[in-house]
Request: fold
Amino acid sequence: MFEKLILSLYAGTLFAIVFLVAPVLLRTEKDKNLAGRFYGRILWRFYKLAFFMLLFYFLLADEKIYTLLLMVGLALNVGLSFYLKNLKKDLGNIDQIDYDHPKRIKFRRLSLLSTALFFINFLLSIFVLIKTFGGVNGV
Reply:
């Protein structure tokens, strides 16, 4: 029962990042630099929390392979975020760089890839919830 709660919190947090936080912060027209810094802080705090949630889920759940898949998804996001963080340091204030500059285009595409990976992780966590706990009738 506790593992179900942990996985539900993980999926809910991913939902909030993908469908609430990212669209609101990353689609702003002004102060993209500030919005990006705020989003980055949210992500790095989420990664710490998510790691512990998945660690507890791994220890409590019977199906270890699903947990490992979720951990790989999280690790991909952490790696991409680390790369984006370093790329952002090279760019400086993104508001002062032309929208069509090659480095800004690369940064924008990698940011979209990061959000897509979060969405895939969200779908995987929902799949694991349904598969492991018997769907709607088992809830």
Notes: Residues 32 and 81 are 17 Å apart (CA to CA). The chain has five helices and no strands. The chain has a mean pLDDT of 87.
